[in-house]
Design brief:
The structure holds three protein chains of three kinds. Chain A is an alpha+beta fold. Chain A contains eight helices and 19 strands. Chain A has two domains: 230 residues, Rossmann fold; 99 residues, Nucleic acid-binding proteins (OB fold (Dihydrolipoamide Acetyltransferase, E2P), Beta Barrel). In chain A, strand 4 and strand 5 form a beta hairpin. Classes of the chains: A alpha+beta, B mainly alpha, C mainly alpha. Strand 1 of chain B pairs parallel with strand 1 of chain C. Chain C: It is a multi-pass membrane protein.
Chain lengths: 349, 293, 299
């Protein structure tokens, strides 16, 4: 039971070109899932396939345990919030919200009650008789959400719903969406290219790259235990430093022999370390600062290692360091991630 | 107009002069002359004209032939415009679905635009010929069932069909481009809201297509007032009897065969007023259903 | 599009195929009959969908025994010149209307757009009078002057008859000024920056506006070319000699020449195809560019 979503070896090809490669995953009942990835990774296609707006080439999609891949959108129990809101311009806000109920043949009285209720949830009360063209971006967004929740759907799908709002509004809507999800409890799938949206809203994040799952885990794991160099460099701003090193069983060395960190690994490997985990002010490493950005709370330093590779260091003490100064720092062993240089996959546990 | 940034003067005058001279000479002058001749009569033995007040109008308006051809023109406009737009709408809705057939259909369906009414009239005359054409076998079984040469209703129908044929391309282009400006996500949203394809057409696509539908109706009404001339001239010559004599054809025969300049001019004035009235009525209607995107 | 609706796609395909059949069947029938000889046609006693071998023969007959080749040339000249006049005049005027500050612009725009409401064919009777003597308005002025100055002699009378000339046939066709509307929409959609680097008006017109307007210019030119080609009533009355008549008029004269015997249907069908070939090919090849250039979606 429950409104689970199961993707079972789902593939999609457009004109013979595969964009989703046999993808499998399961979403729990009531979970808030974010599908994250760079543009063109197939995340919107994924959402359309769950919604039924796009046919799948092979595989199965199950909602609440029932196969739906051959069902029409209306028979899947999903509602969707679109990127450009997709409000019907010739209908009032009330008609927009109530259209699904009207199509479903819900009696007028009940329709009005439910429209009012949905409008109350998104705080839209005063605008019910206006046309969408008379609303601001944030208000349109609320109408779009009200339209989605008015049917009490099993599954709520969001297609980059916040990308058309300005930064301030986006932050507010993020909090509201999070509260809304807690209140309604529908299984929600949220597509975005913005990692902050994904990390703050979702219980679990599915990171897609070129039609494949790179990692499907909690935001915490995504950040602290990236499964591949792709995840490591996609999540976090600034992204994780990735340095090609060689391990001799006791230390990881740069090609010129400089010891970066103590570690038991043997052989060539990609070392990853987040800029903010590098400890400055003490240590064995000494390098020149090429460029410095003061961000108030901390400083971002571009530093050149021996052998020419550059790394970023985020340091809370940055203000004391000028450009072209030499700074001392070290990589704490417990903060080091290792990735297979060939496959990019995580190598340490 | 928001882009103005040059000031008027000689250059401005020189730029607008050609088109003004052209339309004054070959449009406004003829229109004015039509009004002039509707109040004047040509003197019988050469040269000059004589003011006759409303006599010309009285003569035309008392002529039963005028009223019947005006009525036929109205009927023809209604039938040809309605069928032409309805068929084009169906085809545009189908072509908008982006299936494989629609690419070729988009091309083929506008070919009639390139074929003159008079040329296709000749082809249709043959196709509808009671003895040689498509329905000839039918006539052998039921003699006299179909004969546009004798039966006025048959003849009228052939001209309507031919006019619909020639009118489809333009309506189709306008309606299809109108459909394509409707954002895809609106259709998807309606699908998510549970609307079936037919319901989406009715509730979303048609309402959003009203500007284009009005445009096609306005243009069809203007065109169907004059376009059928080429068809009538090659298919029926206004007959049998007067059954396909639309006003445009009557004006031509009165003016160029009976040399009744004043009569033809008066009828031209009345037809102009009729067309303008039809167009204005449509603009009034359109104002009522406007919405903002 | 929503893909889970195969049945509807099938219905749509059926609608399109029926529509194309309706459009194409007269043309196909004309083409098949045009391949038959007169004897074959009479023997079949009506429409026979069996193609014959005489297509080339019929076309050769059209080309050698009728005036149609010459008349096709007339059509090319009339259609090209009316389309060229339409596009050039409208382009210059719209440039002035959109980019110049003038209190006349509104009026001029209204005057040009009003021509769309009343097609040429509606006013052929008096247009004929005007073209028979284009100097008519000048004569009025002269007479007025003569009358005012009380000169006893008769006023001079100017005559400039354009009937049966290419100019006389093409110019009235060129009056309909829909292009002004299309160009205006296009100009207004251009980014302002395109015109802001301080170039003089003519420089701007030639160096910036003209190259930018290629798409709508080509589209409208072809559209008006085809329009000029297919016009019938006006050329019918204004071209009085067979040498000056455009092809469509020539074809219809062929059709009405022999009323009593079974008409030369195969020849007529060949003729109908002969006079329609060029514009149909033009429309078929340029379809995409025309639709894009006319920008009909934005009313």
């Amino acid at each position: 039971m429950g409104n689970t979503i199961e993707l079972d070896h789902v593939s999609k090809a457009f004109d013979g070109k595969t964009v989703i490669h046999g993808l499998s995953a399961a979403f729990e009942d009531g979970e808030f899932i974010a599908i994250l990835g760079p543009s063109g990774c197939g995340k919107s296609t994924m959402l359309s396939m769950i919604a039924g707006l796009e046919r799948i080439t092979s595989g199965r999609i199950l909602i609440g345990g029932t196969e739906v891949q051959n069902k029409a959108p209306k028979d899947r129990g999903c509602a969707m919030v679109f990127q450009n809101y997709a409000l019907y311009p010739h209908m009032s806000v009330r008609e927009n919200i109530g259209y699904a109920l009207k199509v479903a043949g819900v009696p007028k009285e009940e329709r009005h009650r439910r429209i009012a209720e949905a409008a109350r949830v998104v705080e839209l009360g005063d605008y019910l008789d206006r046309r969408p063209s008379a609303l601001s971006g944030g208000q349109r967004q609320r109408v779009a959400i009200a339209r989605a929740i008015v049917r009490e759907p099993k599954v709520l799908l969001f297609d980059e719903p916040l990308s058309n709002l300005d930064a301030k509004l986006r932050h507010g809507m993020r909090m509201e969406l999070s509260q809304l999800h807690r209140r309604i409890g529908a299984t929600s799938v949220f597509v975005t290219h913005d990692q902050i949206e994904a990390m703050t809203l979702a219980g679990r994040v599915m990171l897609l790259n070129a039609g494949r799952i790179e990692q499907f885990a909690s935001p915490h794991d995504l950040y602290h235990r990236p499964a591949s160099t792709f995840v490591a460099s996609f999540i976090g701003a600034p992204p994780m430093n990735l340095i090609t090193v060689t391990g001799d069983g006791s230390a990881l060395r740069l090609p010129d022999g400089t010891i970066l960190a103590d570690h038991g690994h043997t052989g060539g490997v990609t070392l990853g370390i987040r800029p903010e985990k590098i400890v400055t002010g003490a240590g064995t490493l000494l390098a020149k600062v090429l460029y410095r950005e003061d961000l108030g709370s901390h400083c971002s330093l571009l530093v050149q290692l021996g052998g020419g590779q550059t790394i970023l260091i985020a340091s809370p003490f940055g203000t004391e360091i000028g450009a072209f100064d030499e700074i001392r720092f070290h990589f704490p062993t417990e903060q080091i991630h290792l990735f297979d240089t060939e496959t990019g996959l995580r190598a340490n546990s | 107009m928001r882009q103005t940034f040059y000031s008027g003067g000689w250059l401005y005058a020189a730029l607008v002069a050609p088109i003004l001279i052209l339309i004054f000479t070959f449009f406004y002058l003829p229109v004015g002359l039509a009004f002039y001749w509707s109040f004047f009569l040509e003197k019988p033995f050469g040269g000059g004209s004589q003011f006759v007040g409303l006599e010309n109008f009285a003569r035309v308006l008392l002529d039963a032939g005028f009223w019947s051809s005006l009525w036929r023109t109205f009927l023809f406009m209604m039938l040809a415009a309605s069928f032409g737009i309805l068929l084009a709408l169906l085809l545009a809705l189908a072509a908008d679905r982006g299936i494989r057939t629609s690419r070729i259909a988009r091309n083929v369906l506008i070919w009639p635009k390139a074929i003159a009414g008079a040329s296709i009239g000749i082809v249709f005359t043959f196709i509808f010929n009671p003895f040689l054409g498509l329905f000839a076998p039918l006539n052998e079984v039921f003699p006299g069932l179909w004969n546009p040469r004798i039966d006025g209703a048959d003849a009228f129908a052939t001209v309507v069909i031919a006019q619909v044929w020639t009118g489809i391309p333009f309506n189709f282009i306008i309606l299809l481009s109108g459909l394509q400006t409707i954002p895809d996500t609106l259709i998807k949203a309606a699908a998510m809201d549970g609307a079936s394809a037919w319901r989406r057409v009715r509730d979303i696509q048609l309402p959003l297509l009203t500007p284009q539908l009005f445009l096609t109706f306005v243009l069809e009404f203007v065109q169907t007032a004059v376009d059928p001339f080429g068809l009538i001239d090659t298919m029926t010559n206004g007959g049998p009897g007067d059954s396909t004599t639309l006003l445009i054809y009557k004006i031509y025969t009165d003016g160029f065969h009976s040399y009744d300049l004043s009569g033809a001019a008066t009828q031209t004035v009345l037809l102009m007023l009729f067309v303008i009235a039809m167009v204005l009525v449509q603009f009034r209607l359109e104002k009522r259903v406007k919405y903002e995107r | 599009m929503i893909e889970t609706t195969r049945g509807i796609d099938r219905t749509a395909a059926t609608v399109l195929i029926v529509g194309m059949t309706f459009i194409l069947s007269p043309l196909v029938i004309a083409l098949i009959v045009a391949t038959q000889s007169y004897d074959e046609f009479v023997a079949a006693g009506g429409i026979s969908l069996l193609p014959g071998q005489h297509f080339i023969g019929n076309i050769v007959q059209i080309a050698t025994e009728t005036n149609l080749p010459r008349q096709v040339l007339n059509s090319i000249i009339v259609a090209t010149s009316s389309a060229a006049i339409k596009c050039t005049f409208a382009f210059l005027a719209t440039f002035a209307l959109v980019f110049f500050e003038s209190r006349w612009s509104k009026l001029i725009f209204a005057l040009t757009i009003a021509t769309v409401m009343l097609p040429l064919d509606l006013i052929v009777v008096t247009t004929y009078q005007v073209v028979a003597n284009v100097a008519m308005p000048l004569n009025w002025l002269i007479e007025l002057g003569w009358y005012a100055s009380a000169t006893p002699t008769a006023a001079p009378h100017l005559e400039w008859n354009l009937l049966d000339t290419y100019l006389g046939i093409a110019a009235p066709i060129a009056t309909s000024s829909t292009s002004v509307f299309i160009y205006r929409q296009f100009f207004l959609s251009l980014p302002r920056a395109a015109a802001m680097d301080g170039a003089g008006p003519l420089r701007f017109l030639i160096d910036i506006l003209l190259p930018l307007s290629k798409t709508p210019l080509i589209a409208t030119f072809i559209f008006w070319f085809v329009g000029g080609w297919t016009s019938y009533l006006w050329p019918l009355v204004s071209a009085t000699s067979s040498e000056m008549q455009p092809a469509i008029v020539g074809l219809s004269r062929l059709a009405t020449s022999e009323p009593d015997r079974i008409p030369e249907v195969p020849m007529l069908m060949a003729g109908a195809l002969f006079v329609s070939f060029l514009p149909v090919v033009l429309i078929a090849v340029m379809q995409g560019r025309i639709v894009k250039g006319l920008n009909l979606s934005e009313k």
